[in-house]
Amino acid sequence: MSIILIFTIFRLYISIVLEQLFGCDEIALWYNSKPIAILRKPSFYPHRKEERVCRKFGKSHPNHPYIKTIYESGDWLVCGNLDVIESILWNDGLDDIRYTPNELRAKWREMKADAIFAFQLRNPIHNGHA
Questions:
Q1: What highest taxon heads this organism's lineage (predicted)?
Q2: What CA–CA distance (Å, rounded) separates 86 from 100?
Q3: pLDDT at residue number 111
Q4: Would you tell me how many other CB atoms lie within 10 Å of the CB of residue 9?
Q5: Residue ranges per domain, the chain?
């Protein structure tokens, strides 16, 4: 099953790649010289950074660490259906407990769980809450 994700396109690649990507049906995503996923049916949008940070944080102060990261990211967004070919191994001692949604569902069925409480840690700032 595909999931929809949105990525920023970094400035470095805009002049080289962006024009080639418009009209593509699929984009291969690479990590360490290996294809790890395919982004299908990509759509491109201007990255309205100020609107994004104001809606998310209620302010646009560039000294806020996450706001700064957003302002420094690319000027375009690409989204589409993501099919993962190979998961990235981070070798941080946690690789064996990172599961896909389908793997989690299988574990819950195996456990005969009748109730599940879970939350997702998406970035290092929030990982401190775990």
A1: Eukaryota
A2: 11
A3: 96
A4: 18
A5: 3-127
